[in-house]
C-alpha cells in the first residue's frame, strides 16, 4: 500500500494545471450508455474512480480505447445489465449506471452501495424517482432490481432533498423516457450542468439547465448521437490547491480552471485574507499577510461545497482566531478532525459543528487518510507542520486527485510516494 511522506515547506511558487473534474466525468461516462455512436471524451482525469467506472462498463461489454488525448467509449456491444458488488463497493457513484441502463434495456441490477466513511448516503431518492417514472423496483439479496418493460414514462418529480448523483441519474433515465420529465429541486452543480448541456447537444432537449427545475424531453427509447466533448475543470482540485497557496502564504497560479465555478470558495479565501488575479481560465492566489478566521456552512451549489470542508479546516488551524465550520450535508464528515488533532490542531466538535482555535503549531507525525477530501486536508496540514508527516491509506486520495504529489512537487513541495 502506498503512503505519502511530506516535509514542511517555506513557500510554494509556480503554476499548477488543473485536471478534468472527476464528478463531471462520472455521469458523463455513464451517459455513454445512451449512445448509438462511439463517444470521444477529452480531459478525463487520471484518477482511480474514473478507471473503476470504465472497468464497470467494460465488464458489461462496452469497448474502451485510450488514445493520446481522449478516451473513446463504445457502448454498442454492451449487453450485461448487472453492476456487481465487487465494483460498486469500491465506488458508490457506480449507482450512476442505474438510470441509463434501465432506460436503454428496460431492466438493470445494481449492487446496493453499502456504508460510507462520511455518512449513510442513502439512494432512496434515486429509486423513488425511477418508480414514479414507472419502474418496478425490488431489493433482493443486496441488489437493486429495476424493471421497466414498457420503457420509462415522463412525469413530475420533486426531490425531497437536493441530490447531485440523483439528479444526474434521473436526467439520464428521462433522456430516453416517453414524454417529458420535470425535476423540481434539481442539483445545480456545474457537473450536472455539463451533463445536461452534452445531452442537449446530443438531441435531448432540456429546459432550465443550471436552475432548480429541469424539464427533459425524452426520445421514447431512441438511442442518441453524442458529439465529442471535453470535461470541465475540477473545481475541488482547484480549491484544494488554492488552500495550499493560502496555508503556505504563497503565490501560485492555477491554469485550465473555471473561476466562476469557485465563487463561494474564492469568497471564503478572500475573507481569510487572500487575494486573487483572475483571467477567464486561470487564478493566481496572492498570499495573505495574516490568515483570518472564518465561518463556513456547507450547502449545495452555489453555496460552499462540502467537498472543500476538510481542506478549509486544515487552513483554519493556521488562522489567527476562532473559526466555525458547520457541515450540513453529511453527518459523519469530520473524520479528519482526529487526525488533525494528532498533528496538534485545537478543534472541538459539537454535533455538526467544528470550532477551530487558531493559530496552532502543527507537528509532523503518522496520520491516516479516512476519505477522499480528508486526505487532501492532511496533505495541506503537512505542508506547514514541523518536520515530516507520513500520510497512510492514500488510496482514498488516489480516487480523486490526479498526480497530487507531482503537481505540488512542481511548485516546490517535498512529497514522496512510498510503499509501506
Ligand atoms: C455528490 C458528489 C460528492 C459531494 C456530494 C455533495 C459525485 C460523484 N459525488 O455525491 O463529491 O460531496 O455530491 O455535494 O458527484 N441523499 C438522500 N437520499 C438520496 C440521495 C442523497 O438522503 O437518495 C442525501 C445524502 O445523504 C446527502 C445529501 O442528500 O445528505 C446530498 O447527497 P448527494 O448530493 O446525493 O451526494 P452524492 O451525489 O452521493
Layout of strands and helices, then pairs:
Blueprint: E1 2-7, E2 13-17, H1 22-31, E3 39-42, H2 48-59, E4 63-66, E5 70-74, E6 82-83, H3 85-88, H4 98-105, E7 107-111, H5 124-132, E8 136-140, E9 143-147, E10 156-158, H6 164-175, E11 180-184, H7 190-201, E12 206-207, E13 213-217, E14 229-230, H8 235-247, E15 251-255, H9 263-271, E16 275-278, E17 282-286, E18 295-297, H10 309-316, E19 321-326, H11 335-342, E20 346-350, E21 353-358, E22 366-368, H12 372-384, E23 388-392, H13 395-398, H14 404-410, E24 415-419
Parallel strand pairs: 2-15, 3-14, 6-7, 10-11, 18-19, 22-23
Antiparallel strand pairs: 1-23, 1-24, 3-5, 4-5, 7-9, 8-9, 11-13, 12-13, 15-17, 16-17, 19-21, 20-21
Task: Give a quick summary of the entry.
With 420 residues, the protein is α/β, with parallel strands linked by helices. 31% of the residues lie in helices and 25% in strands.
Which ranges are low-confidence, i.e. pLDDT below 50, for 5 or more consecutive residues? none
* Cα end-to-end separation: 6 Å
What small ligands are held by the chains? uridine-diphosphate-N-acetylglucosamine
Helix content: 25-40%
How is the biggest beta sheet arranged?
4 strands, mixed
Structure classification: alpha/beta
Overall geometric form? elongated
Q: What is Rg?
A: 21 Å
Approximately what portion of the residues adopt beta-strand conformation?
25-35%
Number of helices: 14
* Overall mean confidence score, pLDDT: 96
Strand numbers in spatial order across the main sheet? 22-23-1-24
How many β-strands, per DSSP?
Answer: 24
Amino acid at each position: 500500500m502506498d503512503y505519502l511522506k511530506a516535509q514542511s515547506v517555506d513557500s510554494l511558487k509556480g503554476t499548477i494545471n488543473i485536471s478534468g473534474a472527476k464528478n463531471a466525468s462520472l455521469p458523463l461516462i455513464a451517459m455513454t450508455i445512451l449512445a448509438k455512436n462511439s463517444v470521444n471524451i477529452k480531459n478525463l482525469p487520471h484518477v482511480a474512480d474514473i478507471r473503476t467506472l470504465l472497468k464497470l462498463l467494460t465488464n458489461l461489454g462496452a469497448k474502451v480505447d485510450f488514445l493520446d488525448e481522449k478516451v473513446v467509449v463504445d457502448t454498442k456491444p454492451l449487453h450485461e445489465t448487472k453492476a456487481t458488488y465487487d465494483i460498486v463497493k469500491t465506488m458508490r457513484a457506480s449507482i450512476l449506471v442505474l438510470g441509463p441502463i434501465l432506460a436503454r434495456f428496460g431492466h438493470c441490477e445494481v449492487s446496493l452501495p453499502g456504508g460510507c466513511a462520511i455518512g449513510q448516503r442513502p439512494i432512496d431518492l434515486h429509486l423513488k424517482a425511477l418508480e414514479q417514472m414507472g419502474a418496478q423496483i425490488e431489493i433482493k439479496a443486496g441488489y437493486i432490481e429495476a424493471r421497466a418493460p414498457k420503457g420509462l414514462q415522463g412525469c413530475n418529480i420533486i426531490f425531497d432533498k437536493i441530490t447531485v448523483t440523483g439528479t444526474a441519474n434521473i436526467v439520464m433515465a428521462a433522456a430516453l423516457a416517453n414524454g417529458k420529465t420535470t425535476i423540481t429541486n434539481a442539483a445545480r452543480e456545474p457537473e450536472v450542468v455539463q451533463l445536461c448541456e452534452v445531452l442537449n447537444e446530443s438531441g435531448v432537449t432540456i429546459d432550465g439547465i443550471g436552475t432548480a427545475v429541469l424539464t427533459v424531453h425524452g426520445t421514447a427509447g431512441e438511442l442518441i448521437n453524442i458529439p465529442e466533448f471535453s470535461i470541465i475543470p475540477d473545481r475541488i482540485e482547484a480549491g484544494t490547491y488554492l488552500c495550499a497557496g493560502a496555508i503556505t502564504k504563497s503565490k501560485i497560479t492555477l491554469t485550465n480552471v473555471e473561476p466562476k465555478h469557485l465563487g463561494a470558495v474564492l469568497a471564503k479565501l478572500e475573507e481569510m485574507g487572500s487575494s486573487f488575479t483572475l483571467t477567464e481560465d486561470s487564478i493566481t492566489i496572492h498570499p495573505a499577510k495574516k490568515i483570518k478566521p472564518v465561518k463556513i456552512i456547507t450547502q449545495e451549489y452555489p453555496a460552499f461545497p462540502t467537498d472543500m470542508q476538510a481542506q478549509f479546516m486544515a487552513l483554519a488551524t493556521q488562522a489567527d482566531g476562532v473559526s466555525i465550520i458547520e457541515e450540513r450535508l453529511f453527518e459523519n464528515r469530520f473524520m479528519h478532525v482526529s487526525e488533525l488533532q494528532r498533528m496538534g490542531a485545537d478543534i472541538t466538535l459539537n454535533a455538526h459543528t467544528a470550532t477551530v482555535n487558531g493559530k496552532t503549531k502543527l507537528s509532523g507525525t503518522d496520520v491516516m487518510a479516512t476519505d477522499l477530501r480528508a486526505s487532501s486536508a492532511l496533505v495541506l496540514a503537512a505542508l506547514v507542520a514541523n518536520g515530516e508527516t507520513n500520510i497512510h491509506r492514500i488510496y482514498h486520495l488516489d480516487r480523486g486527485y490526479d498526480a497530487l504529489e507531482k503537481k505540488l512537487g512542481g511548485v516546490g513541495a517535498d512529497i514522496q510516494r512510498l510503499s509501506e
